[in-house]
Amino acid sequence: MSSQSPSPATQFISHAPGHWPDVSPEQWNDWKWQLKNRVNSLKRLEDLLEVTPEEHAGALLAGSKLSLSITPHFFNLIEPDDAGGPIRRQVVPRVEEGHTAPWEMADPCGEDSHMPVPGLVHRYPDRVLFLVTDRCASYCRYCTRSRVVSGAGEQELHTNFEEAFAYLEKHTEIRDVLFSGGDALLFSDDKLEYLLQRVRAISHIEFVRIGSRVPIFLPQRITPEFCRMLQKYHPLWMSVHVNHPRELTTEVRDALNRLADHGVPLGNQSVLLAGVNDSVEVMRELVHKLLLCRVRPYYLYQCDLIQGSSHLRASVAKGIEIIEGLRGHTSGYAVPQYVIDAPGGGGKVPVNPGYVLFHDDEKVVVRNYEGKIFEYPEVAIPFTNHHKTELCPG
Ligand SMILES: *Cc1c(COP(=O)(O)O)cnc(C)c1O
Questions:
Q1: Which of 29, 101, 218, 394 gives the lowest tally of CB atoms within 10 Å of its CB?
Q2: Ligand 1 centre from 215 Cα, in Å?
């Protein structure tokens, strides 16, 4: 049993150089080259792929909403013969993006109304989201912040860094700063280091984390020098964003390992997407492969109600089914928390399969992953005032 080779599902494959056979390894491994050579026009897309009419129309729409932009590294993962493939659906625009369902919004999580300073979202008591840039290495078609990222839409992000630092200094209740955007890892090492220094200089900030899809879109960015720089600002955590096991290539695995080797604890935030990862099988493969890369699945997000995302939205029932298919069946470390980011701005709300069947003062009745039912006595609290009053009136 133990001598079996790993199943193809958990194998790491490099797709380089793929569509770029003439590029030298030095160029290919240079993150600046990757950025300069992104596929960012309909013409480039058509040079490299057989574009469907739905994608053609989508690419035309993208120019005024959310830019088309795909790094060569990530572009090579696209399934050439499968217009509905899980990588393609994430980054190639489709005509359905032009359709807004009645419940869809430009700012689905009500971030703009929770910004005390431009670029700083302060929703929870002790932590803030710091939007440091409006640019990403590639653009996810379901981006919750598509109103401000990529430079294509009408709204712009004008982060006021000095005002943001002043706010962080003044608000001593903030102990956790989350760098996001856009993607902070598009900054030079020096610029990102400057921001980390400024935040680390504030004594009440204990915990710093970066949310980034760069290790996945642009693994070349995760250089040894970059990792050595990050290491100076611990405790520094990172949340990456992987939706499908195919995204975990050898280059991505090596980049994640470099980060982990430099002491950066890694979590993953997936978005549940129709046709991408809305099945127990795909998600099981993904979470197992993440553990091999030393990444702990952190959140599985129900797709935010962003305008033009209906074609990518899976049901909440499907999300619950996926969690039910993982919990108990596999390592607890592999099971993310499924959440809905409450429309309008209530924050992340956990959504779980119903394992508690009954609960009163005397007992709790629970169901395990196999559907077996168990009873646990509720703990009586005899010495509280409440009980005293009940037991000994007068
Ligand atoms: C997601 C989010 C955070 C971080 O939430 P955690 O549950 O601590 O990971 C903080 N602020 C905002 C506005 C967020 O959307």
A1: 394
A2: 20
What are the E-state strand segments in the chain? 120-124, 127-131, 176-180, 207-211, 236-240, 266-272, 295-302, 337-342, 347-350, 356-359, 363-367, 373-377
Instruction: Let me know if domain 1-354 sits in CATH 3.20.20.70.
Output: yes
pLDDT at 386: 53
Render pLDDT for 171-188 as a digit per residue (tens, 0 to 9): 999 999 999 999 999 999
Both tokens of 24, joined, read 């030298």
Strand segments, DSSP code E, in 148-276 are 176-180, 207-211, 236-240, 266-272
> Which two three-digit tokens encode residue 54?
């739905």
Phi, psi dihedral angles at 170 (to 5 degrees): -75, -35
Distance between Cα 271 and ligand 1 center (Å): 15
Q: Which residue has the tokens 């809905």?
A: 340
Per-residue pLDDT tens over the stretch 320-358: 999 999 999 999 999 999 999 999 999 999 999 999 999
Cα-Cα end-to-end distance for the chain: 70
pLDDT at 393 over 50: no
**Confidence class for position 217, pLDDT limits 50, 70, 90:** very high
Q: Nearest to residue 220, comparing CAs of 137, 136, 131, 132? A: 137
Q: Is the CB of 184 under 6 A from ligand 1?
A: no
State the amino acid at position 18 in one-letter form: G
Residue 13 CA to residue 35 CA, distance in Å, equals 22
Judge if the beta carbon of residue 120 lies within 6 A of ligand 1: no
Proportion of the chain above pLDDT 90, given as a percent:
93
Domain segments of the chain as ranges: 1-354
Q: Going by CA atoms, what residue is nearest to atom 5 of ligand 1? A: 348
- Residue 7 Cα, ligand 1 centroid: separation in angstroms? 36
Read off the pTM.
Answer: 0.94
Give the single-character DSSP code of 385: H
| Ligand 1 contacts CB of residue 38 (under 6 A) | no
User: Could you give the residue numbers annotated as active site?
Assistant: 123-124, 127, 136, 140, 143, 145, 304, 341, 348
Answer yes or no: is the C-beta of 209 below 6 A from any ligand 1 atom. no
Kindly give the number of the ligand 1 atom that is closest to the alpha carbon of 122. Answer: 13
